[in-house]
């Protein structure tokens, strides 16, 4: 099969969940003999067309800043969509690809891919990582109706939709697509890489008892974790490591400095090396992230694979409960509930299902196989 992936960002030159999914699935399918092309921005050195890990990377636009004032740039998404349309349409007219797989979000490249395939009969598979709906009100304020409109337009174009979780699939069905037509193929993890990641002590770094990793935005509720940790830190003599950055970092640092156990909290910033994050997970006893908005939540799966006791939030806008199940503690995103979960974990209580057993269900080899099945169904008209 000849597969074309569409993503303005390309892993490992830009790191993130959506682009890593394409890399992990695409490289495995290429190793199995499939032809894989990734259409993206030119974030790598060298020519616009290169081979990487068995895949062809095709730059249709120059590299550029993706964020403006800590928000994804709308003009960047539009620009990439415009630049994508002609080269993709030309290749599809020449019969070079059997299927196009486009990531959602952003939306404009998906609309562009849908336009490029018109008249070719090439199916479009979309991968929905999140469905925002009313979240646009918080993200764009007065421009929220524009975000909602584009999201609905994207859901309405002819496509074969794939969601990364049941929660995302259910949300997508509220925008139009019948729930029975939405396949669920979750994101994955590399169990081998996680289990072999060097420990912090091997890297000359400090290890932490409790760990958080993620973008510092309000939905992640790091402030709730800080307050809960402060209640237990002295009793259990534990430390908290906070990995990541974001628009709330300065506020969170200030909040942490006011804690009774401020000296037990460390902000590690953004770690360039993925294996460094995995190593910290291997060393930690608890991975805690009371986030109330997760389209999937890859960090939970990684932490379970590292045999951490995971604490996640039970919230209708988060797929964490679906992902973690009874292999961790899924609790109300309140200070009291997170405190109680921390006490249970630090007392040595383990969840009913072993975290590593649950995590093994998300190995990338399995996910790549499931993804290929959806592409084959689309090509064969079986959707």
Describe the structure.
The chain has 383 residues and is of the alpha/beta class. The chain has 2 domains: 2-188 and 363-379, Rossmann fold; 191-362, Glycogen Phosphorylase B (Rossmann fold), CATH 3.40.50.2000. Helices cover 41% and strands 19% of the residues. It is built from 15 helices and 16 strands. It has helices at residues 17-31, 74-93, 108-116, 135-140, 144-156, 166-173, 191-196, 222-236, 249-257, 274-283, 298-305, 320-324, 335-346, 355-359, 364-379; strands spanning 2-6, 35-42, 49-52, 55-62, 67-68, 71-72, 99-104, 124-128, 160-163, 183-184, 210-213, 240-243, 265-269, 286-289, 309-313, 329-331. It has an 8-stranded mixed beta sheet with strand order 3-4-2-1-7-8-9-10, sandwiched between helices. A 6-stranded parallel beta sheet has the order 13-12-11-14-15-16, sandwiched between helices. A hairpin with a 2-residue loop joins strand 3 and strand 4. The longest helix has 20 residues, at 74-93. The mean pLDDT is 94.
